[in-house]
Amino acid sequence: MQIAALQKLTLLDFPGRTAATIFTPGCSFRCGYCHNPELVLPEKFPRLIPEKDFFEFLDKRKGLLDGVCVTGGEPTLQKDLPGFLKKIRKRGFAVKLDTNGSSPEILEELFRAGLLDYVALDIKAALENYKKLVGLDVADKVRASKNLIAQSGVDYELRTTLVREIHNEKEFVKILEFIRGTPKFFLQNFQSRGGCLDPAFEKLHGFKTAELNELCKLAREFVGECGVRK
To answer: Which CATH number do you get for residue 178?
Structure first.
């Protein structure tokens, strides 16, 4: 299992859990606004954390942590993911997986094996605009992933990073129509902060707080819970 980075403690990433977060290198998408280009392009992470070192850390945190978040990049690209999650679960830790939905077949395998306690699925855009934004024609895979997650019985959330120049109200409503009935949906505001995968996106903008609150209000007509994450 390739581990690019480790956050030893998070009180936010795994709802209801005190957790550690690992970041896997490599991503199938090329979202220009991504602010973790070093995780998208694995050659930028030549020095990885040995799996052995991670589990030594985890063994020392028994009784202090109760969960592990696996994020990226895109974790489902990792061939060793199922075996890696089994090792985490055998140690008594819950598992949260962050995914872009590009590998529904991997998600199905993980659900069948009972390896997931929480899933966060990123919804990038309206399905018809995915290819333009992420560089791949993956609309059908994202739809399949969303349906698998919703039917899995595992706790989950959907989330969207909003860019003013991309996610206008028409686009946002199309996203809401696609995820209608989702119990939890969170908005993440785009912040350039420098270092976007595509430097041109550093000139783009997020939304004002009042605007995000209005979008949340609109979203609640389609989903159960909607909130803003910083």
So the answer is: 3.20.20.70
- Residues 35-45 have a mean pLDDT of 78
CA 126/CA 218 separation, integer angstroms = 16
Domain of 67?
5-229
User: Please, which residues have CB within 8 angstroms of residue 195's CB and are 6 or more apart in sequence?
Assistant: 35, 37, 202
pTM of the model: 0.95
Nearest to 156, CA basis, from 78, 101, 220, 222: 101
Find the range with the poorest average confidence among 42-51, 77-86, 114-123, 133-142. Answer: 42-51
Q: What's the total number of domains in the chain? A: 1
What's the start-to-end Cα distance of the chain, in Å? 29
**Which pLDDT value is given to residue 196?**
87
Q: What 3-state class would DSSP assign to 18?
A: coil
